[in-house]
Amino acid sequence: MDLVARIACRELDYAAEPDGLPLDPAVAIREILADTVAFEAEPYDLWSEMPRFGWPTVVVSGGRDLVTPPAVAQRAVSLLPNAVLVTLPMMGHSALDSREPAALDIAAGAVRRGEFGGLAARAHRLDALAPRAPLRLLWKAVAVAAGAEGALPAIPKPLRHVQLRINPMAV
């Protein structure tokens, strides 16, 4: 297991106990990371500490986030005394990975200029900012591959397990 996987499991609880609900990412993560490291909770409860935070906080939430659903972001904003929620309806989990221009715009406004109060009203404009070209190209490639796969005929079940045996002596 590499260092990133160790941190993801031990500190971020990526291999959490599956909740049994549809689309639970914990099921897939547990299959991918067979030899997971046990989660070690922090020595404090972050949720109970949030009301004591004295700094402005921008919480960015993706409408398509299956890892940290919008309800978690809403809960955080309700507990933070000086927070604003920016919901990007078309974004998944990571703004830096999938909506980099929006993430940088949010950081520039909130951090550099101290203008975070109006960010929520700009959410739809921020969500409409085009992702970087390589990411758009990747999305197109995945869409084409998925379309091609869907157009291929299904392989009959008995043939899926047939192994070809090549006789090295036959020429």
Order of helices and strands: HHHEHEHHHHH
> What is the number of domains?
2
Poorly predicted residue ranges:
none
Shape: globular
Distance between the termini: 44 Å
Q: Enumerate how many helices there are, as a single number.
A: 9
Strand order of the largest sheet: 1-2
Q: TL;DR of this structure?
A:
This protein is mainly alpha-helical. It is built from 9 helices and 2 strands.
Helix and strand arrangement:
Layout: H1 3-10, H2 25-32, H3 46-49, E1 57-62, H4 70-79, E2 83-88, H5 95-98, H6 100-112, H7 123-128, H8 133-151, H9 157-160
Parallel strand pairs: 1-2
Question: Could you name the key traits of this structure?
Answer:
single chain; 171 residues; mainly alpha; 2 domains; two-stranded parallel ribbon
Can you give a write-up of this model?
This protein is mainly α and 171 residues long. The protein folds into two domains: 1-43, no CATH class; 46-138, no CATH class. Helices cover 44% and strands 7% of the residues. The chain has nine helices and two strands, in the order H-H-H-E-H-E-H-H-H-H-H. The chain has helices at 3-10, 25-32, 46-49, 70-79, 95-98, 100-112, 123-128, 133-151, 157-160, and strands at 57-62, 83-88. Helix 4 links the parallel strand 1 (57-62) and strand 2 (83-88). The two termini are 44 Å apart. The relative contact order is 0.09. The model has no long low-confidence stretch (mean pLDDT 79).
